[in-house]
Amino acid sequence: MSRGLNRDEIKLIAMGTMLLNHVATVFMEPGTFFYELFLDIGYFTAITMCYFLVEGWHYTHSRKQYALRLFVFALLSQIPFSLAFAEGGKLQNSNLNMMFTLFFCFLIICALKQIPNPMLGKCIALFLTFGTIFCDWAVFAAVFTWLFVWAEGSEEKKRSAYLWAVGIFGVFTLLSGIGRFTPVGLLFYALGATAGVALSAYCILYWYNGKRMKKGKKFLQWFFYLFYPVHLLILGLLRFALQ
To answer: Quick one: CA dihedral 163, 4, 192, 143, positive or negative?
Structure first.
């Protein structure tokens, strides 16, 4: 099969699936067909961004600047994040947004790769993993990051990493749905939830060519950072306007 998708194209797809997920969360009625469809498709984004975070750790010119950008945009995104997902029409304390999650995941990569003592590095990475409990995609994104660090440089390990990711997310979804669905409904619920993660595996393993777009690299770099807080701000303002 021809590998016809570059890194930026897959990231653009990830932005689109994230938007669908957030539109469903903010505006749609839980349990409806399109709510579940958009939500499940949106699960493509988090694991894809974790994969590219691990890859980007090697390509970046400055890891300190990379971490700083993630942290700054995490701060900028928190109010839009809280605005978009406010309940009852009022802003309230919420989890930290996905940019904070990616910031913690980047530190996990640094701990695993840069600390000379492997045991110490793993202990610090584990501490950072528990730190994501207060973030969007709590623990899951960190686990995905661990898997992709382990799988680097091996196509076979990448397949195994994605298989583990699908399995872990599927089992968690299955357990979280107990009591809410019939046995058959529970199975479809879990399969639907893992569809986005499996789609990420398909794109990365069979379509990703390891390249970037030849033109507009700088524009796309900042577009990916800005898209997150800007789209959340728009969704949040629309939500309050409609209420």
So the answer is: positive
